[in-house]
């Protein structure tokens, strides 16, 4: 740990890998501090940073790891990185404690505490350039300095290669015509065996085929080892499946990456023919026509490049929820616990707010008679301000929801299309990938405007938006399952949705009540948000939008 005392291993326990979703990606955290407290009399502090994490649903902090100790520095840039599994759909709480190390003891109580900072991994990733600066706190009446956290996605080789080949003078294998050639690509494994990784299409009746270009992850071609052998076999296709072997050649990713050149013309050799015939040269040649490589972009590339998630909430105020003044109502405001609407809102909102820099969330209601004249509205602002329905933070949305309950009369019917179109109008104004819109609809059930909602969703599928529907209460949610196009893509008037943008989750599956309620809310958030990263990527890909470069670092404060 260059120049610094290696103390990363000072009694640090193994990182905990609890049960949870498959991590979407791994993130490397770099830690720096500025203007730390000076605790040493004759020299500067010798800082060490300790990272703690929590398992999903647990409030217990577990030590994850330690940096090295940097001698005599109040502005350390730690070399040791923390590598964490990043899951968009989970709230991943982090705590950073700083100590001035005075001895070789691994026991932290033997060292001077310099301050701490709390944040979520989403907060770091969602900050501009995935760089978060926070004040250190924890020592009364003292300024403890600041901590700077930088998150970088670990590239597990996300490159995709696009290749095109042609062949010349392949052996004629068919009695009545020429050959019908195709190629099969294999990557070699550590143990010398081969694994198939690509098959070209068949080009009919020619000895000089030009195959179509194909894209393949570099990982699939060579498992990240650019010098590993790639074997290619050439066959003549037969209808009965007994394809005739024409010949083979080997290459490597490094060779192919040289592109079209005399290095990438290969003799196709049939070893059996070569052994039998002295004058045998080859069974034709295969030439690489073009080679290109591009990085496959990830959700984090867009977030780091500045894409903002805009979060809108729509709440069902129809009479089927029950009279809000009665404890049996789904809208009942108990002094002792949050109702299902508030819980669902909190579970999803707490995670998504890390990716929205202004923390202003439009909040709408539908299916109620609203003042002053008592007309039925299907997109009324919970804060009463039609020109700006945005509330400040999730707390602001909850407050506006509770105020609305006292102001409006629950009525009906249950129409979704107006709120879907409301968000779609906003999404249609920013198609450049700088913003992505997420609409959370919380409802007690049976939808009245199915045809209009389907049409609204099919139109919205072309836009940068996703829709999450959380069903509360005990109703049958068959219609919601239909809107969630996981099994059959939704369509309207013969037009099929371009992307699957709806995710439906029944709230009752996560209602455990009691002390475990926190865990079930984490489960709800996980289920509801799991598809958002891929839905955002599918929009960007369909529109050919590349993530912008990461914004430059702000100059350091002296």
TrEMBL record:
Keyword Ubl conjugation: no
InterPro entries in the record: C2_dom, C2_domain_sf, C2B_Copine, Copine, Copine_C, VWF_A, vWFA_dom_sf
Gene Ontology annotations of biological process type: cellular response to calcium ion
UniProt keyword Iron present: no
Record-level Gene Ontology MF annotations: calcium-dependent phospholipid binding; metal ion binding
Region (Disordered): 1-24
Ranges for domain C2: 9-136, 143-266
Protein name (Swiss-Prot/TrEMBL): CPNE5 protein
Source organism per UniProt: Melanocharis versteri (Fan-tailed berrypecker)
Lineage: Eukaryota, Metazoa, Chordata, Craniata, Vertebrata
């Amino acid at each position: 740990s260059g120049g610094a005392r290696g103390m990363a291993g000072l009694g640090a326990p193994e990182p905990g890998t609890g049960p949870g979703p498959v991590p979407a990606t791994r993130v490397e955290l770099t830690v720096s501090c500025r203007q730390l407290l000076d605790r040493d009399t004759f020299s500067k502090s010798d800082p060490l940073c300790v990272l703690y994490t929590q398992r999903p649903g647990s409030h217990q902090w577990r030590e994850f790891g330690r940096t090295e100790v940097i001698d005599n520095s109040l502005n350390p840039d730690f070399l040791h990185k923390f590598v964490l599994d990043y899951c968009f759909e989970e709230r991943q709480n982090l705590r950073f404690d700083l100590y001035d190390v005075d001895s070789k003891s691994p026991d932290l109580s033997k060292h001077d505490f310099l301050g701490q900072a709390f944040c979520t991994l989403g907060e770091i990733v969602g900050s501009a350039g995935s760089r978060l600066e926070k004040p250190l706190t924890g020592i009364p009446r003292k300024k403890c300095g600041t901590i700077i956290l930088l998150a970088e996605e670990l590239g597990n080789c996300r490159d995709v290669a696009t290749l095109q080949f042609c062949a010349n003078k392949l052996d004629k294998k068919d009695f009545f015509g020429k050959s019908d050639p195709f190629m099969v690509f294999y990557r070699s494994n550590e143990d010398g065996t081969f694994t198939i990784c690509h098959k070209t299409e068949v080009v009919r009746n020619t000895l000089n085929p030009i195959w179509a270009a194909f894209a393949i992850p570099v990982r699939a071609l060579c498992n990240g080892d650019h010098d590993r052998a790639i074997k290619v076999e050439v066959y003549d296709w037969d209808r009965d499946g007994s394809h005739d072997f024409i010949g083979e050649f080997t290459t490597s990713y490094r060779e192919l990456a040289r592109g079209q050149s005399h290095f990438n013309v290969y003799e196709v050799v049939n070893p059996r023919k070569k052994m039998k015939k002295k004058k045998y040269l080859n069974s034709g040649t295969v030439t690489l026509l073009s080679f290109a490589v591009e990085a496959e972009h990830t959700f984090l590339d867009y977030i780091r490049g500045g894409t903002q998630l805009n979060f809108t909430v729509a709440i069902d105020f129809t009479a089927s929820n029950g009279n809000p003044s009665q404890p049996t109502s789904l809208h009942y405001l108990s002094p002792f616990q949050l109702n299902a609407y508030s819980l669902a809102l909190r579970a999803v909102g707490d995670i998504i707010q890390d990716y929205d820099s202004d923390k202003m969330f439009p909040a709408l209601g539908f299916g109620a008679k609203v003042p002053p004249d008592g007309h039925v509205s299907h997109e009324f602002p919970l804060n009463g301000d039609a020109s700006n329905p945005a509330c400040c933070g999730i707390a602001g949305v909850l407050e506006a929801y509770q105020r609305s309950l006292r102001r409006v009369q629950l009525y009906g019917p249950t129409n979704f299309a107006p709120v879907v179109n409301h968000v779609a109008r906003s999404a249609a104004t920013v198609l450049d990938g700088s913003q992505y819109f997420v609409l959370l609809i919380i409802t007690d059930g049976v939808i009245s405007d199915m045809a209009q909602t389907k049409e609204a969703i099919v139109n919205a599928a072309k836009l940068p938006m996703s829709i999450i529907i959380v069903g509360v209460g005990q109703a049958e949610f068959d219609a919601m399952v239909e809107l969630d196009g996981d099994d059959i893509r939704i369509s309207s008037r013969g037009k099929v949705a371009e992307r699957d943008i709806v995710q439906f989750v029944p709230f009752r599956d996560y209602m455990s009540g009691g002390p475990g309620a926190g865990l079930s809310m984490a489960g709800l958030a996980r289920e509801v948000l799991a598809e958002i990263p891929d839905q955002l990527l599918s929009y960007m890909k369909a529109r050919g939008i590349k993530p912008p470069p990461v914004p430059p670092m702000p100059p350091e404060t002296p």
